[in-house]
Design brief:
CATH class of the largest domain: Mainly Alpha
Number of helices: 12
CATH architecture of the largest domain: Up-down Bundle
Shape: elongated
Mean pLDDT: 83
Number of strands: 2
CATH topology of the largest domain: Four Helix Bundle (Hemerythrin (Met), subunit A)
Helix content: 55-70%
Strand content: under 5%
Largest sheet: 2 strands, antiparallel
Radius of gyration: 22 Å
Order of helices and strands: HHHEEHHHHHHHHH
CATH superfamily of the largest domain: GntR ligand-binding domain-like
Strand order of the largest sheet: 1-2
Structural class: mainly alpha
């Protein structure tokens, strides 16, 4: 396994130094294994491992290529792990969101423009407390995704969006069962936009932490199996 790890590190180095770029075809297996000083079997194992995590794309009869290396592609493994859930996973996902998303809001506060604020307010204007719960949840997903993208960190945005879609059922059920959940959520959204408009990253961070924690707190009091609130395996 150590030899395979060496092969992985060397291929990674070829990519990080720019010797291999997204879309490039790797040299033939024999040539590459000789160049790196490892056996062809170790090279094949390294290629298989890098294919699993979507760094390489093995095209039968054509060759092995570096993928696009786009965040959405590379973070698919995180989605896979999140799908292997048990009752504790949903709370852990909210815990990760509570750590990362407020930081993204603080970053967004430093970059946001008047046009961005206007767009967020336009999103808020599309819904109210009488909007059906499933539509409110879709608004919630879009609202959070819009703010996270304003942070300017594609990897952070992709990771948070991947985690967020796994909380849809929980958010729908909360909206159906908790008194004033919709009204409270929309008020919290509006407060976050106000903080962003003031470019107050600290305030936006605090409001977002409280916003996510409110759902997390509701989950901790939920008396059914939390796995029922997770999406079915393989579904986004």
């Amino acid at each position: 396994m150590a030899v395979t790890d060496t092969a992985i590190r060397r291929i990674k180095q070829m990519i990080t130094t720019g010797e291999l770029k997204p879309g490039d075809r790797l040299p033939p297996e024999k040539d590459l294994s000789e160049r790196l000083g490892i056996s062809r079997s170790s090279m094949r194992e390294a290629v298989k491992a890098l294919e699993v995590i979507r760094v390489l794309d093995v095209r039968r009869g054509d060759g092995t290529y570096v993928t696009s290396l786009e965040p959405a592609l590379l973070l698919e493994a995180v989605s896979f792990v999140a799908d292997l859930h048990d009752d504790d996973t949903l709370l852990e996902i909210f815990g990760v969101r509570r750590i990362l998303e407020p930081a993204a809001v603080a970053l967004a506060a430093a970059r946001i423009t008047e046009e961005d604020v206007a767009e967020l307010r336009a999103q808020l204007a599309l819904v109210d407390e009488d909007t059906p719960v499933d539509e409110l949840v879709q608004h919630d997903l879009a609202f959070h995704a819009s703010i996270v993208r304003l942070a300017g960190n594609t990897y952070l945005a992709t990771l948070l969006e991947s985690l967020s879609v796994r909380t849809v059922r929980a958010r729908v059920w909360r909206g159906l069962t908790q008194d004033n959940a919709a009204e409270r959520t929309l008020a919290e959204h509006a407060a976050i936009v106000d903080a962003l408009e003031m470019r107050d990253g600290s305030l936006g961070e605090s409001l977002t932490t409280a916003h996510i924690f409110n759902v997390e707190k509701w989950l901790r009091g939920y008396d059914g199996p939390l796995s029922d609130l997770m999406p079915p395996l393989g579904n986004e």
